[in-house]
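agent: user wants the full assembly modeled, not chains individually. Plan: 1) parse entity lines 2) check alphabet per entity 3) run joint structure prediction 4) return tokens. Steps 1-2 passed, two entities, 230 residues total. Proceeding.
--- entities ---
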Amino acid sequence: MADNVTPRVRVPRDATAGEVITIKTLISHPMESGQRKDGDGNPIPRSIINRFTCDFNGQNVIDVTLEPAISTNPYFEFQATVPESGAFTFTWYDDDGSVYEDTKEIAVS
Amino acid sequence: AAMLPFRASAAADEAINAFTGGAEVGEGGLTLTAPEIAENGNTVPIEVDAPGATAILVLAAGNPTPAVATFNFGPLAGAQMASTRIRLAGTQDVIAIAKMSDGSFVRASKEVKVTIGGCGG
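--- prediction returned ---
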């Protein structure tokens, strides 16, 4: 089980219509790879975030499949086109069935 | 410089085939940025950039399992690029394969020398 999973997202507050903006996301998560062993030599079961998506007003920006080789506290930086004012939705899917969400509003002038 | 067990690259080839459906893979149009030397294999920054791609697969051929991530770009992607941080078990080639919008595939790879491996023991 992953405790204290906290998403952090950086999105500009405003943009011009059609502007390409940079988004940075980080979520605190151990990303237990399934390759490690505990003190007694028993394998520690895999427990990772396996998918991350970013959408804007219901349209997809990026959809990432994560494998155990993604580092602890998965970080992504990518670019989005902003056609109008609205909200970005960020969603992380955990192996244990948990879903973590964050949203960020952006104003287009 | 190749000190990788044979099965590692075979597994990587398998992952590439699963992504490309066995199609021919060309070169050019895909930039993979990674450090030449990574002191800590637990968190190695990489960036992929392939203008016009619909998806980019990233593999670490020398890891216990080669798959790292697949980036699928939607209609509102401002560019077909992404950065993340990955784990590398040791010195090896990081490989990226991009699927372009015309259905063709291109690859890029970069050797990363790892001082302390990042897959735990």
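agent: reporting back. Chain A touches chain B at residues 20-21, 33, 35-37, 55-56, 59-72, 74-83 (CB under 8 Å). Chain A has no helices and eight strands.
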